[in-house]
Design goal:
The complex is a heterodimer of chains A (342) and B (507). Chain A is α/β, with parallel strands linked by helices. Helices cover 43% and strands 18% of the residues of chain A. Chain A has 14 helices and twelve strands. Chain B is mainly α and 507 residues long. Chain B has one domain. In chain B, strand 1 and strand 2 form a beta hairpin. Classes of the chains: A alpha/beta (342), B mainly alpha (507). Chains A and B meet through helix 2, helix 4, strand 7 and helix 8 of A and helix 4, helix 5, helix 21 and helix 28 of B.
Amino acid sequence: MDRFDDDFSRRGFLKGSGAALGAGALATLPFQVAMAAAFPERNIKVYVPTREGGGADRNLRAFASIWKNHIKTNFEPAFYPGAAGRVGYETFMGKAPRDCYHLLFGNMGAEVLNWVVKPPTFPIDSYFYFAQVDADPGCLFVSTKSKLKNVDDVVAEGKKRTLNVGVSRLAHPASLGALALADKTGAKFNLIPLSGGRNTLSGVATGEVDFGALPTSSIVGRSAFKIVALFDDKNALPDKIPDAVLVNKHFNMNLPPLVAGARAFGIQTEAVEKYPDRYKTLVSTAEKVYGDPAYKAAVEKTKAPWEYFMYGSAEDCKKYVASITEIGQQYKQYLTGKQKKS
Amino acid sequence: MEFSIEIFAEQFARTFSYWWVILPSILLGLIVGAIPGFSAANTIIILLPLTLAMDPETGLVFMVALYASSRLGAGIPAILVNIPGTAGAAATPLDGYPMTQQGRGQQALTISFTSSVLGGLLTTIIALLAMPWLSQVAYYLHSVEMIVIMIFGISLIASIAARDTLKGLIAGFLGLMIGYIGADVIYETPRGTMGFLELYDGVPLIPALVGLFAISEAFSVIEGDSILTKLGREAMQTGGWGATIEGLRETLSRWWHVVWTAMIGLVIGVVPGAGAAIAAFVAYQQSRAFSKTPEKYGTGHIEGLIAPESANNGVTSGTLIPLLVIGVPGGATAAIMAVVLQYHGVTVGPELFATRPELGYGPFTTMAVTYILMIFTILPLARYMSRVTVVRTVFMAPIIISFTLVGAFVPREYVFDMYLALVFGVIGYVARKTGYHVAAILIGVILGPLLEQYFLRAMRISQGDVLVVFSSTIGNILWVALVVSLCVPAFTAWRRRAAQERTPAAQ
C-alpha cells in the first residue's frame, strides 16, 4: 500500500470492518440453519485439544470451510488446550454425547505418545480417528549461524561431544526421530524439551541448544533456520528445502515416516456403533473435500505447504497410530525419565 | 538491517496519518487492559475477522496500538481497586493501591500513565536505534542467566519478609509451593494437581492474581464503608486538576528512575519467553534495593509505582525485537501479530526492513505514536477515574467480585478457574487477617514456576551438573550484582543507624 488514501480510506475501513464483523458474527451463529437432510440436522461440535491459532486450528478451519458445503452443516470448534491436550481428550470422552454430532480434531502422533507415557482414564480403543487431513514430517534443523551446516556435521559433532537438541516436548514424533538417529549413528544427543515450537525455534536461534527437531512446516520459510534432515520417505518440498536429506536413505535406516503433524478427525466407537449411517455420511463427505479444488485454495491461503495435505482413511490412521505407538514404546523408558540416556 | 533516519522520519509521519485507527485502538486497549483476564492477545484473536479484513499495514497499526495501550490500561484497576488485570501489572498495586487508599488515586494514576508513556516511548526509540545490538541480548541470556534474573525478582520476598521475617518467608514459600503445582516441564509428570486436569498446566495466573489481590480485598473492604482511609476521604473532598499536575511533576522530577527501570523492562522483553511480570518485579526489587528510603516501599511510595509501570511498558517494544530480527515472536501477542501478517503473505524477519519498511519500522513508529497520542487522551481522565474510589463498598465489593470472576473465566474458559479464584480469595483474606503479605505469596506463584523451568532446563542441558549455574561469565556477573543489590539495603541501613548513633553523641 503506497498511499492509504487510494486503497483504504476511513470510510472503507468502517465499511470493511462492519462487513468483516458481520461475516464473523454470521460464521459463529450456532444452530441458525436447520438442514433438510436427516443427518446432520444441526451443527457439529469439534473438540480441539490444542490452543487457538496453532497448526490444528489453521488446518481445521481450512478443512471445515469446505467440508461444511458437502455435509451441509456448520462446524463449531471448541478448544481445550490444557495438559498437553489431555484436558481436550478427557472432556471429549467424558462429556461429549455419543451421537456423531461431536467429533475430535487432534494431532495423532503427539497424542499417541501421550498415552504411551501416561495412559488416559478411558480405554484407548473407545475412540478412533477416521479422517486424516495432513502429514507434516518431522525434521532436524539448525540455525543458519550454526557451524553445523548439514546432518553429517551434526552426527560427526555428536560423536565428539553430547549435542543438545531442542524439541517442543520429549513425547513427540520429531523427538523420537532424533533419538533413533542417535541410536543408529552412535552420536550423543541430549533432548531438551523447550515447551512448544516457538520456544524451540528461539532456543535454536539463540544457540542455547545445538539444533532442533520439529514438524517441517514450522520451519519452512524462516530464513534464520535450515532444515538438514527429514523423517519421511520423500522430500515433498525439494524447492523449499533442497538441502534436507532423507534420514532413512542417508543413514540406511528403516524408520516409519515420523509424521510430526498428523491432524485428524476422531469419533467415539460407541457413536459409530449406534449410528453407522451417520458415520458413513461423515466419512463419505470428508473424502469429497480432497476432490474439491476450493480446498487447495483454502489451504494455500493459510500459507501451509499444500504438499503436506493428504487425506488418510480410518485404516491409514490406525496404521499410523500403531507405528508411532511401537516406536514410542521402544523409547518409553527415556520419555518417562527412567532411562537417562538414549 | 541498516537504520535510516530518512526512512524512519517518513515512516513516523506516515504512522501519524493512521490516527483514525490508533485512537479507537487506544480506547479499546485501555478497556480490555483494565478488565481482568482480557489482554491484547485474546482481544486480537476475538477480533481476528476484523484484523484479517484490513490490509497488513492497517492491521499492524491496530494490533500494536492495542498492545501498547492495553499494557497501560492494566495498571488502572491495579491502582484504584487492587485488581491487577494481567500478571505484568502484579507489582503495580504494591504502592499504587496504598496511594489510592490515602486519597491520592488521581496522583497515582497520573504517575502510572506518565511513567508508562515515558518508559514506553523511550524504550521504543532505543529499541529502534539499538535493535542490532539489543537483539544480541537473547544470545547471551540463556537458562543459566535467567535463573539469576528470576532470583532478583523472587528476592523481593526477602524484602517483604524484612518487616516480619517468619510470616514473610512462610508466605513466600507457600507461593512457591503453589507455583510448583502442575506437570514438570521435562517429563510432564503431574505434581500436586489433586486429580484436577485443569491444574496440569500449573496454577493459572489470572485466577491466582485476582483471587489473592481483588477478591480478598473485596472481602476485607466490605467490613468498612469505603476503601479509603479517613485521611483519604478527606483528601478526596478536595479533588481538582491540581492532583494531576502534582502527579505529573512527581514523575518528571524522577525522570532518571523512569529511564533505568524502563531499560530493565526493555532488556528482559528482548529475551523470548520472559515477560512483563518478571520485568515489573525485578524493576521493583532493584528500585527498592537502591533507594534511600526502602522502608517506604509498600506504603504508597511514588518510586515503587514508577518502577513496575515503566518496566512493564519497556517490555512491550522489547518483545517485538526477536520477531523482527530472527522471525521468532518474543511473546503471545507478538506471535499472533506474526500469524496475521503471515495470513497476508508477509513473512516476518529482518528482510522486512529492506523490502517492506512500513512493516519493519512500522511496529516501532506505531508504538511511539500510540504513546504520544495516549498521554493526551488518558491524562485528563485520571481525575474522573479516581472518583471510583468514593463508591461505597457495599456496591464496590460485589462489582469487584463479579468482574474478577468473569476475568478468571476468560483466559481458558474453564468454570473451574472461577472456583479457583474464590479459593485464592479466601487464602488472600486469611493471609491479610493474620498479617501475612499476599504479595509474597503472589511472587512465589508467578516467578516460582519460571525459576523451576529455567533451572530444570539448565540442569538438563548440563546433564545434572548443579555447578552449571556458575558456568557463564554473564551469569556470574549477574550473581555478583544480585549479591550487591541484596547487601546494599542492609549496608545503607547499617550506615544510617551508625549515623543516628553518632548524632546524639555529637550533641
